[in-house]
Design a protein that fits this description.
By secondary structure, this protein is mainly alpha-helical. It contains 8 helices and 3 strands; from the N terminus they run ααααβααββαα.
Length: 196
């Protein structure tokens, strides 16, 4: 059993040292758990009545704390259209729901399976694309989701995807051909009407 601290200042320092390396959400869970174990109720935020939550968990509250989302649920909610967007979303999931804000490039690869998504043909290229977009800062095992990446995921990538590939090239070619054909018909129509 740990020795008792001699003063409240020592206790505060010990608590600070224990909580400092944790992210905010994890800190809140630890503090809530400790208060519950000590039989202390957290103060309710102003305007929060019994049985309601206003952003924080209150022990003995009949409304359950927020539940975790699976990678599948998050994919369905945010609807990423590219693998680079999915990789940023996996970094977001890892930070927000697993309390792991730091990762290596390889750490996010397994999330395709967890999200029931087919693995990318070129994962490294797609990860590099997420880095180029500014969604992820790559720093070995200390890589992290950037503020821009967090905003992009929470906005559902603004509903934007950069379509690419053979299907897009075919669509552009067909549109160009249709435009040329339409332009050719209007020239023929002018020649016929001009000759009469």
């Amino acid at each position: 059993m740990a020795a008792k601290t001699k003063s409240p200042v020592d206790a505060v320092q010990a608590i600070y040292d224990a909580l400092d390396p944790l992210d905010n959400e994890t800190r809140q869970r630890v503090v809530s758990s400790a208060m519950s174990l000590l039989g202390m109720a957290q103060p309710r935020p102003q305007g929060a009545s019994a049985g309601t939550r206003a952003g924080t968990f209150v022990p003995h509250d009949p409304v359950a704390p927020a539940r975790m989302k699976s990678p599948v649920e998050l994919i369905q909610e945010k609807n990423p259209a590219t693998n680079a967007q999915r990789i940023a979303l996996f970094a977001y999931h890892r930070e927000k729901f697993e309390g792991e804000p730091r990762f290596s490039r390889a750490d996010l690869r397994s999330y395709f399976g967890k999200a029931k998504e087919p693995p990318p043909a070129n994962y490294d290229r797609d990860f590099a694309a997420a880095v180029r977009e500014g969604w992820i800062h790559e720093d070995g095992a200390e890589s992290y989701l950037t503020s821009k990446g967090l905003e992009a995921v929470e906005a559902g990538f603004g509903g934007k995807a950069r379509p690419r590939g053979r299907a897009v090239a075919k669509k552009k070619a067909a549109k160009k051909k249709a435009t040329k054909k339409k332009a050719g018909k209007s020239k023929v129509g002018r020649k016929k009407s001009g000759g009469r």
